[in-house]
């Protein structure tokens, strides 16, 4: 990959000589060219800025030096891999930079970055560039910096570390935050028992157990809990389903159990009727069973927007877990949508939410429903599940499985 950066402070990019990115450049895994915008000025004061038309505070970066600099980058880098670069211009008003964007950019042969300063770059420079190459205005986050250099440092590192061979063990790229929608799990190293002054701090015993299945489950549960606590927005995937705007998704806690029990009984009543038996677990269970279930499964509850400070109405729920004893299987269950809100796609979104919580050890998704629940069976088939032959895991039920892509 080739990277070009244009800035009036080229020394700002010096940190990219260091560490993994520095070594990757020396190993030829990527070629980084930093250009000083002032090289492309034509006056003896090497002027790059001027006062803004229409008045206002600060200065604006002039178009001519930028056009000359970008044209130089294009002529200097054009080659068999790419005729023009993808130009990325950092700006507080840009599209958010994300891990997903980093992956997309890492797949491109040539990126160029234009670091603005002052109040920004004359808007006609964006038009000049867009007439020659793809241009994306991108923001590092919802706060204001003094220029684009810091954003470029972060974006170059986030993209370059995804290039083959840059990060020694690629496996460590997998279970990171923002890969797979969950934040990372807590990490520990020696000593297993740390005497921190007069406080002894021990590593969670499961990590010393050698039981990789249990360790995978613990790490997954830590990721879900941490994500729910710190970034509930990351689990709000079902936010806008069938006209149900701004639904709030949280990981259920014991306080949710009474409402979940009500929803559960309401949702399984039809299945009880068609199966001719009320003795099915969701209808048989009491409040204690629901609370115990919250301890054995990760359960998500979807509520309408909280009005007047109190929690909104629970309109759906689903739970998921790694199958005890087999970390390659992810079990989803208790998929429920309030009867008056069924048929809007919330069930499908909830199933996706549960599947998204599966740790990397999982290769197969599993779900179970009543043998006579044609509606559920049809829905799960549409979601890619296959009916397993024979009796399901519970009397009168069927199992369905789906291989993880
Ligand atoms: C590029 C000039 C400063 C911005 C007047 C302060 C990105 N997430 C981000 N926050 N800020 C930037 C950013 C700020 C920049 C430039 C990026 C070029 N400035 C300007 C407008 C208000 N000053 C950024 N990515």
Automatic annotation (TrEMBL):
EC number: 2.1.1.228
Keywords (A to Z) from UniProt: Cytoplasm, Methyltransferase, S-adenosyl-L-methionine, Transferase, tRNA processing
Binding locations of S-adenosyl-L-methionine: 116, 140-145
Single GO biological process annotation from the record: tRNA N1-guanine methylation
Keyword Cytoplasm: yes
One Pfam family in the UniProt entry: Acetyltransf_1
Translocase as UniProt keyword: no
UniProt cross-references to PROSITE patterns, sorted A to Z: GNAT
Top class in the EC scheme: transferase
Subcellular location: Cytoplasm
Residue span(s) of domain N-acetyltransferase: 247-405
Coarse class of the protein's main subcellular location: cytoplasm
Domain of life: Bacteria
Protein name per Swiss-Prot or TrEMBL: tRNA (guanine-N(1)-)-methyltransferase
Annotated source species: Phycicoccus duodecadis
């Amino acid at each position: 990959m080739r990277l070009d950066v244009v800035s009036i402070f080229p020394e700002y990019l010096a940190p990219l000589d260091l560490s993994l990115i520095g070594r990757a450049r020396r190993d030829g895994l990527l070629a980084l060219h930093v250009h000083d915008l002032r090289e492309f000025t034509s006056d003896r004061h090497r002027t790059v800025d001027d006062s803004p038309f229409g008045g206002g505070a600060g200065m604006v970066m002039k178009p001519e030096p930028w056009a000359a600099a970008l044209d130089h980058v294009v002529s200097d880098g054009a080659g068999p891999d790419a005729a023009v670069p993808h130009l990325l211009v950092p700006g507080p008003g840009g599209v958010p930079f994300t891990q997903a964007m980093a992956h997309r950019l890492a797949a491109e042969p040539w990126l160029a970055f234009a670091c603005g300063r002052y109040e920004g770059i004359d808007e006609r420079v964006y038009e000049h560039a867009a007439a020659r190459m793809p241009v994306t205005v991108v923001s590092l986050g919802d706060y204001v910096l003094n220029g684009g250099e810091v954003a470029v440092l972060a974006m170059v590192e986030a993209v370059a570390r995804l290039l083959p061979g840059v990060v020694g063990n690629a496996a460590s790229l997998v279970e990171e935050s923002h890969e797979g929608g969950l934040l990372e799990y807590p990490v520990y190293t020696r000593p297993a028992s740390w005497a921190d002054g007069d406080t002894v701090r021990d590593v969670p015993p499961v990590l010393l157990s050698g039981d990789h299945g249990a360790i995978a489950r613990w790490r997954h549960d830590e990721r879900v809990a941490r994500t729910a606590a710190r970034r509930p927005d990351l689990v709000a995937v079902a936010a806008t389903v069938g006209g149900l705007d701004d639904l709030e998704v949280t990981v259920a806690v014991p306080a949710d159990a009474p409402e979940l029990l009500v929803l559960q009984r309401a949702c399984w009543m039809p299945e009880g009727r068609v199966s001719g038996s009320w003795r099915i677990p969701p209808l048989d269970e009491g409040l204690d069973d629901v609370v115990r279930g919250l301890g054995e499964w990760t359960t998500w509850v979807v509520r309408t927007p909280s009005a007047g400070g109190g929690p909104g109405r629970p309109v759906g729920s689903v739970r998921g877990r790694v199958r005890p004893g087999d970390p390659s299987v992810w079990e989803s269950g208790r998929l429920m949508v309030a009867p008056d809100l069924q048929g809007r796609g919330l069930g499908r979104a909830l199933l996706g939410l549960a599947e998204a919580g599966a740790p990397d050890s999982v290769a197969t998704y599993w779900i179970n429903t009543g043998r006579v629940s044609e509606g559920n069976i049809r829905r799960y088939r549409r979601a890619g599940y296959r009916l397993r032959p024979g009796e399901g895991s519970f009397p009168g039920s069927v199992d369905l499985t789906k291989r993880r892509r």
